[in-house]
Recover the amino acids of this structure.
């Protein structure tokens, strides 16, 4: 665990990584450039992270975890909408969207990075969603036999799908998604 | 439109591209290697396609269009399941899955390729789905006011999401997806 001064450097490095990736793209940033922007030596970065992918993943994870908590107001649909709207906002207004797209791209030829992305970003979301779904089912907000894992894939998968294909991600889009997932099209 | 001998070369090139990408990955194949495997000169490939990405995209598009027709038996759920099961089979047993993952990856830093992928693969799927949905709505298989565009994003997006994250894609998975999209979880 880094001490306070280290924590400042760590924060500066992650902030530099996420803002530079939004401007320059994955291929055009280097550990050296991140270090320069963060005002640290590049050995500082290499001491904490083994690769550029690892820095970007940590920056994306932190930036997501700052907004991503699934609230529990007692209204499951509204809570999911609140969370997804915060994710859309993060995607469309910060370096998180470009960073995530770069990680997905790099992960297609780097299985370790893809697995780390799953472990750091998707697995916590699955656990969070599982816990919240159990309460929603107890309260009758969704059927007890409804398949929460597939439901989660659909909700977060469709956001990623539209991000990856550079399709619009307006908050209103979420209304149609939630309507189908909760009510069905039949 | 290539004549018959050209068509043979074209076929050999696309077959070589899709099989090599499954074995070697996008970064490790070259136009030269595809030409060698297809038994053509590399100028033949450059005459028809401007880049490696363009060859792979055409190979993926042809391989998908051979299986992807959305049937119309009068049972909309069964027809979607038939089509999605064929796509899963293609993804898991041929070079199409690796090729598609490579195109997604390359497309994140190549907007022209990403747009071409949309135009060649996603736009035809949207049009096909729109036409089939209109008939399903006329027959009462789905509500007239149900949002077919978001429904399509959910169905095909979740398959892509699981492919991109190297998550299992078993045909049984489709049952849960169709259950939620048609019935909802409420």
């Amino acid at each position: 665990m880094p001490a306070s001064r280290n924590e400042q450097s760590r924060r500066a490095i992650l902030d530099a990584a996420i803002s530079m990736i939004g401007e320059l793209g994955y291929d055009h940033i280097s550990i050296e450039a991140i270090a320069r922007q963060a005002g640290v030596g590049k050995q500082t970065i290499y001491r904490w992270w083994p690769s550029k992918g690892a820095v970007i993943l940590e920056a994306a994870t932190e930036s997501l975890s700052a907004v991503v908590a699934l609230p529990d107001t007692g209204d499951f649909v509204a809570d999911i909408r609140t969370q997804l709207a915060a994710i859309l906002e993060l995607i469309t207004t910060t370096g998180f969207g470009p960073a995530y797209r770069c990680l997905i791209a790099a992960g297609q030829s780097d299985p370790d990075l893809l697995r780390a992305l799953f472990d750091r970003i998707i697995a916590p979301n699955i656990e969070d969603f599982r816990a919240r779904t159990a309460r929603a089912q107890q309260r009758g907000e969704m059927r007890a036999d409804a398949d929460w894992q597939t439901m989660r894939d659909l909700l977060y998968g469709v956001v990623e799908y539209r991000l990856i294909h550079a399709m619009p991600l307006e908050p209103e889009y979420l209304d149609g998604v939630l309507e189908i997932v909760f009510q069905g099209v039949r």
